[in-house]
Amino acid sequence: MTRILVTGASGFIGRHVVNAAVERGYEVAALVRNRDTYGEPTRQVVPIEGDVRDPGAVQSALKGCRAAIHVAALYSFDSSQAKLMHDVNVGGTGNVLRLALEAGVDRIVYTGTVGGTAFFSDRLATEKDVAGPDAMKGPYKRSKFEAERIVLRMAAQGAPVMTVCPTAPIGPGDAKPTPTGRIVLDFIERRMPAYVDTGLNFVHVKDVAEGHLLALERGEPGKRYLLGNAEGNLTLRQAFSILSHLTGVPAPRVLLPRPAVLSAAWLSKAGAGLLGKPAPIPMEAVRMSATRMWVDPSWTVRELGMPQTPVTQAFEDAVRWFTAQEKNCGLD
């Protein structure tokens, strides 16, 4: 049984990657921040507590591994965490990749971000459309951009590493939740009185997990793969329409003008700075919403054989999971 390392194994995507790996017959060394919250070891999954910034922990997790999938990252729009984001997303990535190569692994998959893609108003973006540093607004996007540059340098030097870039994953198990999952949860809880004119490419998180394993097995080192859904390009209004149909909750009808949203974000940032708390309306999220992040993932789908679960199913699975969590909390 081939043993592989999965970092960030307790996260939304990471847990699904671990499950997909187990289904394919791999043994998984699951690197997690807190072993107590992950679950008991099984025959195929061994949770290992550690931080990607800690060389000793990473070396220990890599023992016996023939491949590595580096999912771990700090995904946040809280600018007060800029240094931590850089340390984890850039320093941690360099750490994991360097030590994995020293350990002699055969393949490495790095989880990048669709935010590093150059988007257009007149066509869909593809894997070849990589944005430059000037487009990296906010500490999260900058940190992931720098991390991907490390990956590209190593690949150019012959390292067997490739990048996968999930679009906007939706589905069960988004416990944190991620910013994308927050859209679904806020809608269910009727905390979406209005919307902005933006668009995302939504994809089932299980397809994203499969994409990681397919890249590990079939991907070409140095390549960049967009893990999205060919039918997943939706405006936020269209996404809310799907959610309304699934939940019976009315979709918001008020479209917020962008200048008003920007003003609210600036006021939110100023107030948060005075209180020493994260801004309730993150400026980075507002700036990202100015662009419809629509992609054409057809090349990746063909090259890897990535599944394409209907987007409505992804939303339905997410709604069902969040609703179940709310019911369980109500019973406690």
Unreliable segments of 5+ consecutive residues: none
Taken as a percent bin, the fraction of beta residues is: 15-25%
- Helix residue percentage: 40-55%
What is the average per-residue confidence, as pLDDT, rounded to a whole number? 89
User: Over the alpha carbons, how many angstroms does the gyration radius reach?
Assistant: 19 Å
- H-E order: EHEEHEHEHEEHEEHEEHEHHHH
The biggest beta sheet is recorded as: 7 strands, parallel
Question: Structural class, please?
Answer: alpha/beta
| Largest sheet, spatial ordering of strands | 3-2-1-4-5-6-10
Got a strand count? 12
> How many distinct helices?
11
Describe, in plain words, how this protein is organized in 3D.
The chain has 332 residues and is of the alpha/beta class. It has eleven helices and twelve strands. The protein has helices spanning 12-23, 55-62, 82-102, 139-156, 179-188, 205-218, 236-247, 258-275, 283-288, 298-304, 311-331; strands at residues 3-7, 27-32, 45-49, 67-70, 107-111, 161-166, 168-170, 194-195, 199-204, 224-227, 233-235, 254-255. The chain has a seven-stranded parallel beta sheet with strand order 3-2-1-4-5-6-10, with helices on both faces. Helix 4 (139-156) links the parallel strand 5 and strand 6. The longest helix is centred in the N-terminal third of the chain and has 21 residues, at 82-102. The mean pLDDT is 89.
